[in-house]
Structure formats: C-alpha cells, structure tokens
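Title: Prediction job returns without error message
Component: structure pipeline
Severity: low
Priority: P3
Assignee: unassigned

Description:
Job completed but the reporter wants confirmation the result is attached to the right record. Sequence as submitted:
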Amino acid sequence: MKHIIHALLSVVAILFVGCFKDNSYESTYVLKPLIQNMSVDQPVPLAGVKAYVYPVDTTLWGIASYEDAEAGIITLKEDPSQQMTAPSSVAVPYTGTTDAETSEEGAAVGVENWLQMTINAPQQMIVAVDPTHRLYGYTQQEHILNLPTVFVSVVFQLWKENRSYKNGNWSFYNDFLEIPTELKTYISPKIQTVEDGELTDPTSATQMQVYAYAADTTQWYIASYEDARNGKITYKSDVTQTRIAPTYQAYRESSGLYGMTVTTTPLMVVVVDRSNRLYAYSKQDPDLLGASPTYPVVFRLWRDTWISVEEGWRIVNENFRPENTVTL
C-alpha cells in the first residue's frame, strides 16, 4: 500500500512541475486613461497620458515631484538620494483588439487614447502622468501569471481639492494644487405681495431653497420649476448635458440671510420660493479676497409675468408660461 501511495505522489509531483515549468509573468498591460471633471460626472477618455513601469514595490519606492514623474524617475522613500531613471517599459499607443464600449454607430469609444506596455515581474510599479493637468499617479500591480493581456483603467479626478488622494488601488498627486480662498456670501430673498407694498421676509426657514453652482449663466440655465426645486441645471448648447448636484448649499442664519461659503467664481446662484412656486437665478462674480457680499432678490407676487429680469436676476413664474415655449 505504501508503495502505491509513493507512486501516486511521484506522479502528482511530476504533473505539478510539468504544469508550471512554462509559467511567465510577462503580459501586455493595457491602460485606459479617463478623467472625471466633477464628482457627479461620468469619467471620459483622456488623451495625452504618459505611462511607464518599474519592477519595484511601491511600499519602498515613490515619486518625489511632478517633474520626476514626467521624466520617468522614481525615488527610494527611505533614501531620496537613491533613484531609478530607466523604466523597464514605456507606454506606446495600444494596437491590439478591444473589448471597449461602442457608440450607437458601432465605433469603439476612446480606444485611440489607450496605452500598452510590457510587464514581466511579480511586482510592478505602474506610473501614469497627465501632462495637460499636471497630475500623476501610480499603483502596485502584483502576481500576474500566465495572463497575456491585462486591461486596467486609471481615472484622474480633476475635482479633487487634495494634493494627494487615493482612488481604488491608485495613489494620485497634484503638486500644483492651489488651496482655494474661501468667502462667505449671503443671499437676501424678500417677498412683495402687492405693487409698491412692503418687502417681507420668507414666512419660514424652509420656504426658500438657496444653492449655487460653479457655472456661468451664459452657458447654463434652469428649464423648469421642478428642475429648480431638484437642483438641476441644463447646458444651453446641448440640453442632454445636465448637472444635478449643486456646488454650494446655503442655509438660513439667525440674521434671516442665507449664507454659504464659496471658493470659485463665477457663480450661478439659485433661489427657489417653494411656497409660491417661483424661482430666480443670477450670475455673480464675487471677489474671493474681498468683503462678504449680500445678494438681494425680490419675488414680486403681484406680477403676472412669466419671466422678469431685475438687478441681474432672472425671475420665473411658470403660472404665466405660454404654451409650447422653452425657458432659456
């Protein structure tokens, strides 16, 4: 019986060695670069990315600066005087077949921006550089065995306000990020029920909904009261493009004003009167280094006008909207 067991173990050992004698870590690494401009946007293909590989461990090696990233230089973390300047592989345009998503016409989407390079070690440091926005990132790719082609996406998140951040297995760096200047702004909505009548405050803290987008009203508009109520704006040149997450939200303070802290200009400021189903929006260009501004807006309920413009505000009352017309 023992002889039989030994014989079987010998056969298994031979088969085990035979299965793995041709094992290889060499693969074609296909990188699909994408960029996400706003947190609510879908990532889109990104052109012009550079990429390369080093057969090292990212727990030991990193990148000292954007200039080094673009030049293909990595640095030993514990001893910055130790650097490597010759990647094992540098990316070239992808030439293989694709499993990409296709457009309605059947054409591959974004494949012209894909990159490929060779990896051939158990541990790989993959580096991607976006020269357009001066961003870079890297990841650790491990233990790819007997896999001829590997497809990986890298998403640069342009909206991130951090000099370094993680996204999945990738570490990203923005050496040139300028920390935004914060400015407290105020909106003062009033109600006028009769012509020449007194201007009054909203009847409750929840009557007015106030928010702002980092957007320009020459390019964006609100298509309806429901859109205004839901925080949705539409791109004038392409109505299929919309945004549904305001950049800033304002809240009523003890002074009766609605306050919000902003970091960009211009602003598309929106005020929705939920009790009377009116809304207003305007373009504001605050001086981020100046004093806190207050933006007044008056809802004149006595007006039987669909759209009125007052002090830069576009005030809309859909009760008087003509049929078959579009708000712009």
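Comment from assignee: result matches the submitted record. The helical segments are 2-20, 66-71, 225-229.
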